[in-house]
Specification:
46% of the residues lie in helices and 10% in strands. With 1143 residues, it is α/β, with parallel strands linked by helices. Its main location: membrane.
């Protein structure tokens, strides 16, 4: 049963991660109320819906701000359709005669902001652990005294899972399944309205795009007098304000079905497109050109408007089951700004007009959005009162529903009437809305200018003074109004004439009922036609502090936030500006030290490999020394990302360092190739964790836009190890190759201690108080197994193809087919409902820029590792250098990578752009690798050195910009999954950068064996054994008669390898043009950041407030003003329009 609970034991279940559900979740999180949010969609990037649309945020902005945390509220401009527009750029919505193009009227639309549904959901989901793929099939209260869950509510999901909480909120849209559970299947059904709607998005040529926005930068509307078709154009996305060809518009046509010609075929897309174009030809410009610009074959979806006819008070099971947003009041569209006319929630007129006109742009979900935002704010406030013990759950939810139903039913009724009204020219032109706009009627002046909700919104003030206003009694949320009267206002009016009063039940619920509540009186003033007003007298309340009636005392001026809540640019508030704390550099050093190990081991073995291979007689298995290391470090990185999200970053990195040390010891004592490969596998397991956790830690402690210089430093550290590797490898190869591995052990010990003492990052099981066993069960073992199997099979096929068996042999074809089938099965598994926590979540691969960045990462890893793997054989076998000398000759590649990485990262941070780096880098790589075919035995240093520098320069310039490009369109909550997938693909590229060129090398070398005179040399170099003999000592051992032929065979085979690299680099270069340049985040929003990072401070408004707004004197019988602090108790909390403590 409902009881007064505390925050600790109140748990809220939210069904639906749309705008409403996510905003409720943010509001609950902000107030410390426990919750779990479920979403039936499996894609967290919200790409699965077939259409995207825009919405108009208007009067709901204050409710929005009450739930969002400061750091997200300050980023709300990211959700704008056009982030470059100022919030006051639009003051009116023009409505045209569609036939003539004449302006009928311009409805007031002060501060209307066009937002993107997808962008809002993406922003609101930041920091939330949404349970995706959870389709509710049943919801019911638990009324069983024998159950320890008695008095709660239970959800059951399609996948067999369930959840139990104290209250469930259905925010799952107009076709709500939870509504069916509450009111029954029959009563939950929607009713269709005979109004058809075309609604799609389209991108036009620059000239037409500019012409559309000349009329209005956000939206233009027209109505055709012959058939009442409404034709709406609005901006939906502006990737680049300077490039109109990138702009996307929302195009809508709606009409009453009775005007549809009998010959029209609306059942096929071809028929709908023909009908759309025919209607467009009847319109003036620019609507006519829009129709002609839409290409044949364009998909034209058609909808029928619906609403919930049986909306009424429901049984909420003592406050345990309720609805919000479209689930509670699905309504038909309306396409006008609300500021002109406000809906009647309760009228004092005993004989209200038959036709109530409310006007709010909503064909694109504007009206639904603003009402949903108020629902979310009210619901959060109700639950906060429960969490604080000031109300029972049953009373709080019932009070919330009373207001919601009163408002929602009225809104739905108005929406329905308006749907018929606006699609008939005669009805439209006779409506009060048009009369008011055309006549420019101004309300009577006996009411003063009242403090407005928009006075509290940190929007820049518009030159237009027309905006809705309301009176907010002491300590009451602006969201909790149960009463309003029609406000009549012209675009030129300086104030609105409606007021609102909280219901007595709302006041009592929150303990804020004035001591003289009985003195509240209503006074109704009769005014000329279409100018109806209402006021409420509070004559017995204290007024001695108020000064002149109708004005605010000078010492009680409204304080305005000094910074915008919804900034239109990328400026940051002081609380958002990222700064390094005292623990930053210690953590950064602790992160970088293990990287030195990883880099050292990755390069030291390459130089010494011919010697190691000969010492242990590895034969054709030589490549597995490198391949096993790379394989182990690669295939487990996606799983490591899951471990990092479970344990945090610190403990898993310490484990990875320990595993690496063990692997080094095993390699050092190896007496056979099999033991060496096992040791390399163990080493690789450690290295994979070290590399990935270093990337994840950097992402956690440095914002995306600021990350470039730190990535450059990290890559410099990595490059230092890579530079030292060939030198040490050459020295150890000549002395004792086992020290290639022994040298790692003491460094591992030092790294372990430094990580333990200095790495100060948050997150992990201990801090989250969850079961270790439960977390381990979340690991995608099936996906990891499939991934391992698939990669290993392909590597076996590619590594052994051509040597010792031909490519047509079943031992080559079978593993290749199994590997490909394995990858296909993995893709199905990761997207299936059976995989609860995929190692490579599908949402990470949901946008073009991320996918192209993944492809570039794979190619970059392929070339980077492969180029360095095949350079030593060139210098030793072709140029005749010793192992140590070849280590020096390879060093320019590493040094150039370091220098260019140190340049590329900071440039990305400076410009905020990654795409130019990618274009330049891969163009340079293509040029350098293409020219590598000129290399040969007689190539002087003046040729091979510049070629190395060109290739390495291209590799380095992009190395710091790959991961940011992957993450730029993904939420910060996806850092682990994105980094894991990125690291896996980079490692996979490295793996195949050895295997594929190795196969090409072996095939080409086998074809050149006949040119070598010595049978002994041929037998030792045949069947894939050439690489292990790629040393000057081996080549010279057969005398000068054979040396030239052997050198030429090596050189010609390596030319094929350079060609492979050049082709891939050219492919990557072409792919870069498909990337999109997106804005890079400057803030952090992660629980894994530095523990020493400061909390976001409150921002204090400027000490000087703006002058009191002008107002008109009012008689004492009108509404009395309270002082500003009493009217707005939240004004001392900027960037958070309402303090929930005031509820």
């Amino acid at each position: 049963m409902a009881t007064s609970t505390t925050t600790k034991d109140l748990h809220v279940l939210i069904v639906g991660a749309g705008t409403t559900g996510l905003l409720i979740a943010q509001g609950l999180k902000k107030n410390g109320v426990a919750f779990t949010i479920f979403e039936a969609e499996t894609d967290s990037t919200y790409q699965t819906r077939p259409r995207e649309w825009g919405m108009t945020l208007h009067w709901g902005s204050s409710h929005l701000a009450s739930c969002l945390p400061d750091h997200l509220a300050a980023r709300f401009h990211e959700a704008y359709a056009d982030p470059s527009l100022k919030p006051d750029a639009v003051t009116g919505l023009p409505i045209f005669n569609g036939k003539t193009g004449d302006l009928i009227m311009e409805m007031s639309a002060d501060h209307a902001v066009r937002v993107s549904r997808k962008k809002m959901r993406s922003l609101f989901s930041h920091g939330l652990d949404v349970q995706y793929g959870k389709h509710v099939v049943r919801a019911y209260p638990i009324d069983d005294p024998a159950s320890h869950h008695n008095g709660r509510v239970r959800l059951e999901f399609e996948d067999g899972g369930h959840a139990v909480g104290h209250v469930v909120a259905g925010t799952d849209g107009a076709k709500s399944l939870l509504r069916e559970s509450i009111v029954g299947l029959e009563d939950a059904q929607l009713t269709t309205v005979p109004v058809n709607l075309f609604n799609f998005a389209y991108t036009f040529d620059p000239e037409l795009s500019l012409r559309i926005r000349e009329h209005n930068p956000i939206f233009i509307n027209s109505i055709h007098p012959d058939h009442g078709t409404m034709y709406w154009l609005s901006i939906m996305d502006v990737p680049d304000p300077e490039k109109p060809e990138t702009w996307t518009f929302q195009v809508m046509q709606s009409w009453n079905d009775k005007t549809t010609p009998p010959s029209a075929d609306l059942t096929t897309n071809q028929g709908r497109l023909k009908f759309f174009k025919a209607r467009c030809d009847e319109y003036a410009e620019p609507w006519r050109s829009v129709g002609r610009a839409v290409k044949d074959g364009t998909t034209i979806p058609m909808d029928r408007l619906t609403y919930w006819e049986k909306s009424r008070k429901w049984d909420n099971r003592r406050g345990r089951m309720t609805l919000c947003g479209d689930a509670a009041h699905p309504m038909t569209p309306r396409k006008f700004p609300r500021s002109c006319v406000t809906p009647v929630y309760k009228t004092l007129d005993p004989h209200p007009p038959d036709l109530i006109v409310d006007t709010m742009h909503s064909a694109d979900r504007g009206q639904g959005l603003n009402n949903a935002l108020q629902d979310a704010s009210n619901f959060v406030s109700a639950l906060v009162s429960v969490s604080k013990g000031s109300a029972t759950l049953a009373d709080a939810v019932q009070a919330y529903e009373d207001e919601l139903l009163e408002r929602g039913q009225t809104e739905m009724s108005i929406s329905l009437k308006q749907s018929y009204l606006i699609h008939d020219w005669d009805t439209l032109m006779q409506s009060p809305m048009v009369k008011i706009a055309q006549a420019g009627l101004t309300p009577p002046n006996h009411l003063p200018r009242q403090p407005s909700l928009y006075d509290m919104q940190p929007f820049p003030q518009s030159t237009s003074s027309s905006r809705p206003s309301s009176i907010i009694p002491p300590t009451i949320n602006a969201s909790q109004f149960s009463l309003a009267e029609t406000a009549v206002q012209s675009p030129s009016a300086s104030h609105a004439t409606f007021v609102r009063l909280p219901s007595t039940s709302t006041l009592a619920l929150h303990g804020s009922l004035p001591s003289k509540a009985s003195s509240l009186k209503r006074s109704h003033s009769t005014t000329p036609a279409d100018e109806r007003t209402v006021s409420f007298g509070l004559d017995e309340l204290e007024t001695e502090k108020l000064g002149t009636p109708g004005t605010l005392p000078d010492n009680r001026r409204l304080a305005r936030p000094t910074l915008p809540l919804f900034p239109s640019g990328d400026s940051q508030t002081p609380s958002e500006k990222w700064t390094r704390t005292k623990g930053f550099w210690r953590s950064f050093i602790a992160m970088c030290l293990p990287l030195l190990l990883s880099a050292l081991e990755g390069s030291v073995t390459n130089t010494a490999l011919p010697t190691i291979s000969e010492s242990l007689n590895l034969g054709t298995s030589f490549s597995w020394v490198a391949t096993a290391f790379l394989l182990a470090s690669t295939i487990f990185q996606p799983m490591y990302s899951q471990l990092g999200d479970m344990w945090g970053r610190k403990a898993p990195m310490m484990v990875a360092v320990t595993v690496f040390a063990i692997g080094s010891a095993v390699c050092g004592v190896a007496q056979s190739g099999a033991v060496l490969i096992v040791g390399r596998i163990i080493q690789g397991l450690g290295t994979g964790g070290i590399d990935l956790f270093a990337e994840m830690i950097l992402c956690d402690i440095v914002p995306l836009r600021k990350r470039g210089p730190y990535l450059a430093i990290k890559h410099i550290v990595f490059a230092v190890g890579t530079c030292l590797g060939p030198l040490l490898g050459g020295v150890f190869a000549e002395l004792n190759w086992r020290w290639c591995f022994y040298c790692n052990i003491p460094v591992c010990f030092v790294a372990f201690v430094i990580i333990y003492l200095w790495l100060d990052v948050g997150g992990g099981i201990k801090s989250r108080e969850v079961s270790v066993l439960a977390e381990f069960k979340k690991i995608d073992y099936t996906g990891t197994g499939m991934l391992t199997f698939s990669v290993v099979m392909l590597l076996i096929s590619l590594s052994t193809g051509g040597a010792p068996n031909p490519w047509s042999h079943w031992t080559i074809i079978t593993p290749m087919v199994l590997g490909l089938l394995g990858f296909m099965s993995l893709a199905f598994w990761e997207r299936s409902t059976y995989c609860k926590f995929p190692i490579m979540p599908p949402h990470v691969f949901s946008n073009r820029t991320t996918n192209i960045a993944f492809a570039l990462t794979t190619i970059h890893g392929f070339i980077t590792y492969g180029f360095q793997f095949y350079l030593p054989p060139f210098f030793q076998a072709v140029k005749g250098s010793s192992p140590s000398q070849s280590g020096v000759e390879v060093m320019p590649t590493t040094l150039a990578v370091v220098v260019c990485a140190a340049v590329g990262g900071p440039l990305m941070t400076l410009w905020g752009k990654y795409k130019p780096m990618h274009i330049l880098g891969f163009a340079t790589m293509t040029l350098g690798l293409g020219l590598c075919v000129l290399l040969g035995p007689s190539t002087p240093i003046s040729v091979w050195l510049p070629l190395q520098l060109v290739v390495a320069g291209g590799l380095g310039i992009v190395i710091s910009t790959m991961l940011p490009a992957v993450q730029v369109k993904l939420p910060e909550s996806s850092t682990g999954a994105a980094a894991g997938s990125w690291a896996f693909l980079r490692g996979t590229g490295s793996l195949f950068g050895v295997a594929i060129p190795g196969a090409v090398f072996n095939v080409r070398f086998n074809s050149l064996l006949a040119t070598i005179p010595s049978p002994t040399a041929r037998s030792q170099l045949a069947k894939g054994q050439a690489y292990q003999h790629a040393s000057a000592a081996f080549v010279k051992s057969f005398g000068s008669k054979n040396e030239t032929h052997i050198v030429n065979a090596f050189n010609d085979s390596l030319k094929c390898v350079w060609i492979v690299f050049a082709v891939l680099a050219a492919t990557a270069f072409l792919l870069t043009f498909g990337e999109q340049q997106h804005k890079m985040r400057k803030q952090l929003n992660t629980k894994y950041g530095l523990k020493s990072a400061p909390q976001t401070p409150a921002i204090t408004p400027a000490s000087s407030a703006p002058p009191t707004r002008p107002s008109t004197a009012m008689p004492s019988s009108a509404v009395d003003h309270h002082d500003a602090e009493a009217i707005y108790p939240m004004v001392q909390i900027p960037l958070n329009l309402r303090s929930n403590e005031d509820v």
